Amino acid sequence: MHTYVSFFLDDLSPYVEGEGGELIRIDASALIEVLDFVREEGLAGAVSVIPAMFGRLLTRPQNEHERRFAEAIGRLGEYPVDPHMEIMTHGRLFDFSKMTLSDGPTEMEWLDDPSVSVDEYRDYFLNTIRVGRELGVRYTGVSTPGTHPKMNPNVYKALLELAEAGEFPNAVIPVFATIEEGHPTMAPRPREVRGDFGVYETPSGVWDYLASWRNSPDWVDVDHYIDEKGDGCLARMIKAGSFMALFHMHWQGLNPQTGLGWEAFQRLIERLRSQFGDRVVWRRPSEIVCQFHRKGGTRA
């Protein structure tokens, strides 16, 4: 019995933040290097596309660096990755009427706010989807900025309505909103389901000790996932026959230009292949939830 394996890559941006808060340029070639590796190694996962991270709107690039990065994002469809909304800014809410950051709360706060209606969420997501299309991206799922174990249920209702309206290319939507390390087995969790359409939560089963946003050597530990003896969080899930084993990473730590986790990620893939090659199948999160939904919420 195989386990579906996939990853989420968060915080993708033409920049990473330095220790003093300065923005460090990450060249588009770094993104293409990661994507080429994913394709060549037969992997699959999800990559966050945040159109206005750091307030820099990629549909209106301010320099050649941003233009090249936006063009690279537009090529995601050539690779076995899901483009995920990590919402519009990963910071303060975006004012789509002015196409700039608002003075309001952050998207993290907004997702948990019980007073926000289905319509408000739906309109904001739809506007983000439309900006994504300008970049050449068709979102297939959502990765939330920050973790949200108590997210407003209206988020899921809004996503279901958008799926039913055909705003996503897939009828079943994965949502990465929590990290739940320590569970021996995991499967997609239905949050809103209606007929052929559904929204499923797909938690990461491992804390990011591979390519953390901290980009610190203290947070790079391949053994945490799979050690040389076949133990570790990811290994235990596979051995237990979990339906899925998902993990997440961050662009700050993964990018080959400045990230300390790039080589560690490659070592993890080698250990997965050598120790569990016949027991895992790589799939994009959207493929995992679509199959689960078609089978009526079972792994049959």
Key phrases:
two-stranded antiparallel sheet, nine-stranded mixed β-sheet, globular, alpha/beta, TIM Barrel, 21% strand, single chain, 300 residues
Task: Explain what this protein looks like in three dimensions.
- There is one protein chain.
- This protein has 300 residues and is of the alpha/beta class.
- The protein has a single domain (3-294), classed as Glycoside hydrolase/deacetylase (TIM Barrel).
- Helices cover 31% and strands 21% of the residues.
- It contains nine helices and 13 strands.
- Strands 1, 4, 5, 8, 9, 10, 11, 12 and 13 form a nine-stranded mixed sheet that branches.
- The longest helix is centred in the middle third of the chain and has 17 residues, at 118-134.
Which CATH class? Alpha Beta
Separate helix tally? 9
| Residues in helices, as a percent range | 25-40%
What is the CATH architecture descriptor? Alpha-Beta Barrel
Total strand segments: 13
The CATH homologous superfamily is called Glycoside hydrolase/deacetylase
Shape: globular
Query: According to CATH, what is the topology?
Result: TIM Barrel
Mean pLDDT: 97
Structural class: alpha/beta
First-last Cα distance: 10 Å
Q: Return the string of H and E elements.
A: EEEHEHEEEHHEHEEEHEHHEH
Q: What about the largest sheet? A: 9 strands, mixed
* Residue runs with pLDDT of under 50 for 5 or more positions: none
Radius of gyration: 18 Å
Query: What number of domains?
Result: 1
Strand residue content: 15-25%
Question: What topology does this entry show?
Answer:
Layout: E1 3-10, E2 15-17, E3 23-25, H1 28-40, E4 45-49, H2 64-73, E5 81-85, E6 92-95, E7 100-106, H3 107-112, H4 118-134, E8 141-143, H5 154-164, E9 172-176, E10 189-194, E11 197-201, H6 233-239, E12 244-250, H7 251-254, H8 262-276, E13 280-282, H9 285-294
Parallel strand pairs: 1-4, 1-12, 1-13, 4-5, 5-8, 8-9, 9-11
Antiparallel strand pairs: 2-3, 6-7, 10-11
Helix pairs in contact: 1-2, 4-5
